[in-house]
Amino acid sequence: MATTLSINGKERRVDADPTKPLLWALREDLDMPGTKFGCGMGLCGACTVHIDGNAVRSCITPISAAAGKAITTIEHVATLPEGKKVSEAWIALDVPQCGYCQAGQIMSATALLTKTPKPSDKEIDAAMSGNICRCATYLRIRAAIKQAAGIAEVVEA
Amino acid sequence: MSAVLDMDRRSLIKATLIGGAVLAFDARMAFAATKPGEVATVINAFIRINADNSVTIGAKNPEIGQGVKTMLPMLIAEELDVDWAQVHVEQTIADEKRYGPQLAGGSFATPMNWLPMRQAGAAARQMLVQAAAARWGVDPASLTTGGGRVMQVGGKHAVTYAELAAEAAKQPAPDLAKVALKDAAKFTIIGKSQIGVDTPAIVAGKPLFGIDVTMPGLIHAAVEMCPAYGGTVRSFDDSAVKGKPGIIAVVPINSGYNPKGANDAVAIVAQSWWAADKARADLKIVWDDEAARTYSSAGFEAGADAAFGKGPETSIVNKGDADKALVGAAKTVNARYHYPFLAHGTLEPQNCTALFKDGQIEIWAPTQLPQPGRMLVAAALGIPLEAITINLTRIGGGFGRRLSNDYMVMVAQIAKALPGRPVKLIYTRTDDLRHDFFRPAGWHSFEAGLDAQGRLIAFKDHFVSLNRDGKPAQGATMNPTELPAPLIADVSYGATFLDNNVPTGFLRAPMSNGLSYAFQSFLDEVALAAGLDLPEFLRRTLGEMRTIKGGEGPQAVDFQTGRARAVIDKVCAMANWQGRSGGNGKGRGFAFYFSHRGYFAEIADIAVNSGGGVQVDKVWVAGDVGSHIINPINAVHQAQGSVIDGIAQTIIGQKIEIVNGAANRTNFHDFPLARINAAPQDIVVEFVRSDNPPTGLGEPALPPIIPAVANAIFAATGKRIRSLPVVPSQLV
Ligand code: FES
Ligand code: FES
Questions:
Q1: Is this complex scored with an ipTM above 0.90?
Q2: Mutate to test the pocket of ligand 1, among A43, A51, A56, A129 (most ligand atoms within 8 A of CB)
């Protein structure tokens, strides 16, 4: 059965079980492996994408539920104004260690800044609390969000 | 019994024997061939010079987030004398003959490669200089280099490396041991922060990781492993699986944990991993696991208690007469400490891809130890080592988990059953947490004696952990040099290793992560009995500046008391340490630990809330890893990540329990990883430079934070943390 998805501004047809999670449709059917598998239960945020501008865990979102909505993935996030700032700050501060969680972190950070251009420290921690970084790059994640938001100067080695 | 464990351990030890001064590769062997259409000249195993005068440098070690894919090429580029902006970095394949040891573990990359990588760069530079001298008919000594060019002093001639490359490649390769290295004062790349070479690609979501590997015709595998470690497949019924759409095959395999020939896992192969994993619900397997199911955490706990009643079975170190010294002591202190099994929880679940064809296999592996993986695959498939090609992918977290090659051995067997079809195996998160090689649980029973002046005069430890095939399990060992043994006259460390079925392995700063917690927490108790704070007690116990031999042979690591004192003094100055302080739910704690050749002292400020939850507010780190910090931005990040990793082991509830011979955690709700709110507001890191060759930073900043936080909790609440993880209800 085919489902039509709107991904990064393009219509894409996925010939798969409609209960298949968007994460696996992206990775297996659409050759977009930027969105990552970490837990499969909505617990780690590695699979975060935007659906109609909201940060959503694609591992627990069946493609049937995503049909007809605007999906944005890491491959395209830098074309959004806030996504561009976030991506640039992520590189400037060299946020990644292993890098595996970072697609999800960037998607969550971009969603935060789109809705809350100047978040407080508490708002940053709250918005990012669904995204695990096993390498614990959290100090730079906070700093990069602030840099992208124009809140603070870079304080880095 | 455990082929995976033993072979990996042997080769890790072998690799450690190759000291920095020993030439680890053959400079005459060529770097991987150029791609079709690429105009480039191969100079040696690590360097290609491109037509546009950029250079491609091979990064030989697995990148697990420790920054080695950037750091090792920095060493080469420095001596090659090019600008970092000219450099492209390419991950090499696994080929130790060509590249020397290739592993990610033990914080070995820096000490093992500090010289060889610079020699590789310097040798290529020398060949370029020789080529220029020959071209111009001048003395090579009259030539200089910089920015990827050879120039004549005085300015008559100048030429790019690209123009010289073809002639340079024909020059005799110099003797690496004799090649001239740069004066450190002239370094332009080493010591300057460089952004990770893959960072832009990571941020753009480009495929880099093992789990991202794809190719035409790729099929997917999910695997059901026997939950109880050591159990095997008695029978299985796949009739409900085989008819399902997209299912390709069901293949019984051996995880490498059980002897060859006894299958202990069943793989389902499908057009989609999601479909393969879903079909597991319909696969019926009967396990042969009665013996394996008898093991449990409760059983190990009882075993440790019984062992303490009986006394140690083996001696680790025995000098002087600790018992006699304790009888004569003015004060004695006793306590027992415990730490649990831990999983690694790399965020990228274990996975591996393989294609078997015509008796050959090509593998794409996120592994920290490729060469032992190759040996295991050769043994499991009955093919020669040369028939195996291993491509190294970027790795979504190592932490020691990928020192074991279970995923590689399993996918190789699946691929062999389906020749000509590339297959990717992925673990679910539950598979990953349950089929780990866990940090082994440990128990310590300590006894210390002080004289009337509060000096440490006797120390005993009975260490209890787990065995494997009659030997201490991997990650369950303790050295006779564990402090304070070398510092005092009357010491006895003994051990008991309990019968065990659980696969164990190395977790970031293995052994040290548990030992640091137990020893530095107990020493804080002893210091208190001596009327001192821990930094001062350690200064007195360390005594005068001297070098304490770490044993014999190239593997031995000496301990320098002066370096320990320097980081202790440094961190106390950084945090303005004023002795023990705390109360009303706020406290400050200190600890020092020496591991992986690195000296680290750390101070943590913590707060305990009314519910018993602990928040670490701020941490100070002082470390000595030698004369140079090769990539400063990454050095700070490694230390900060290690600190939060250690905080997670202490206060967020990380613990694996064994029930019926199997781990019982399933995902991040019952085995939590640190989230952003667990991160302190700040972690201040400073390095003390000492006149020693640089050493690694992936691990040694981790061990001290655990006792620093535990000691801070004591300062805040008066409650000693004698068991991990901290249980909030005990702090209320
Ligand atoms: S993979 Fe979706 S939240 Fe973890
Ligand atoms: S960078 Fe490794 S999990 Fe975040």
A1: yes
A2: A43
